[in-house]
Q: What sequence folds into this?
């Protein structure tokens, strides 16, 4: 490996983020390993088949659809990037990795901001039209499920303090993967519970995540039981399991589907099922291409659902619900679905939120669910 390393001590890993203020950079927090990985200053980009062994980590992002029309997403996604500098924080230890020149990174305080903001909830008519189109396609047996989404434009009175947003996201979403990606004066941020795929040596794991219920102050344990037994949510969840299994069984040995469990987040409970198998022949990026988008993000059958999304959604998804991940020099790593997220530009946060529509879905209930999912971004402001 060509990187030098040095142990450092920062009060907050966001000091690294602030040090490289005008450089392209990313932040990635893995709650399973309690590990921060940050990178700064683009060094090299990689094709899907290139050898990564000389580079510590590759940061990778893809757009939901192959092509982008909306100018605000221009230049974002569909790249695999190595950076000159990395900060890795794990087990109470911080290591700075640098490719050529060492830089001294000083502690910098992160100011906590309470942004004053406004956003509209005047899109219910458009939501109802999308919902009706999805239900019609389900009734005619064209699809079993479609994931529709809304874009909410949150306008602040001042420039958005991205470090404050990241700090709050990290504080409020301890069970979620947290990411930030800054490029060209815009930042894509979020806290996602959804793992698309992870690879460790020969083991490949994907997760079905579909089925949602709001947490309760009065009786949260009852909410979990209600979700586990709910026919509509279990049906929606099973569609995702079946689709992932159908893809994975083509390329893996000893495929195992775990028992469905509850994943608890700050505001919501979700149904989650791990699916794992062994594969010696494929790269992590190949697995990402095979699995994206799962029916948790697009629908099923995938092609038909994506046609409906393209036809009826008025906004560009960009990196929303798309793969975002880290690959190490051994080719192992993890990719997430970029949900509970927003693209921040100056004083505006463009937040996308969506939910899966199946035959027993209710238009108003699903719309309310998107408002609950929006809280991840709103609370961070």
A:
């Amino acid at each position: 490996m060509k990187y030098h390393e040095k142990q450092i001590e920062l009060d907050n890993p966001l000091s690294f983020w602030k040090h490289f203020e005008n450089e392209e950079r990313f932040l990635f927090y893995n709650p399973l390993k309690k590990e921060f990985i940050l990178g700064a200053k683009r060094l090299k980009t990689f094709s899907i088949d290139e050898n990564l062994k000389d580079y510590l980590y590759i940061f990778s992002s893809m757009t939901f659809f192959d092509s982008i029309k909306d100018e605000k997403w221009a230049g974002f996604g569909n790249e695999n990037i190595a950076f000159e500098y990395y900060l890795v924080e794990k087990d109470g230890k911080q290591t700075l990795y640098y490719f050529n020149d060492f830089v001294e990174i000083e502690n910098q305080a992160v100011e906590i901001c309470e942004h004053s903001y406004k956003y509209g909830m005047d899109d219910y008519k458009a939501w109802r039209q999308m919902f009706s189109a999805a239900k019609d396609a389900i009734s005619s047996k064209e699809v079993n499920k479609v994931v529709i989404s809304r874009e909410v434009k949150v306008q602040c009175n001042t420039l958005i303090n991205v470090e404050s947003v990241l700090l709050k996201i990290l504080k409020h979403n301890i069970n979620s993967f947290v990411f930030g990606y800054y490029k060209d004066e815009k930042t894509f941020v979020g806290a996602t519970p959804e793992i698309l795929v992870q690879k460790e040596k020969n083991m490949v794991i994907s997760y079905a995540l579909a089925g949602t219920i709001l947490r309760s102050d009065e009786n949260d344990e009852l909410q979990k039981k209600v979700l586990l037994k709910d026919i509509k949510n279990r049906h929606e969840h099973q569609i995702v399991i079946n689709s992932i299994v159908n893809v994975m069984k083509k390329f893996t040995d000893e495929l195992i589907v775990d028992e469905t469990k509850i994943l608890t987040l700050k505001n919501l409970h979700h149904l989650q099922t791990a699916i794992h198998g062994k594969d010696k022949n494929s790269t992590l990026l190949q697995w990402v291409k095979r699995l994206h988008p799962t029916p948790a993000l697009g629908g099923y059958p995938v092609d038909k659902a994506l046609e409906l999304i393209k036809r009826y959604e008025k906004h560009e998804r960009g990196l929303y619900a798309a793969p975002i991940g880290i690959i190490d020099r051994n080719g192992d790593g993890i990719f997430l679905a970029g949900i509970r997220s927003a693209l921040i530009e100056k004083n505006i946060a463009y937040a996308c939120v969506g939910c899966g529509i199946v035959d027993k879905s209710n238009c108003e209930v699903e719309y309310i669910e998107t408002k609950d999912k929006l809280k991840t971004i709103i609370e961070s402001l």
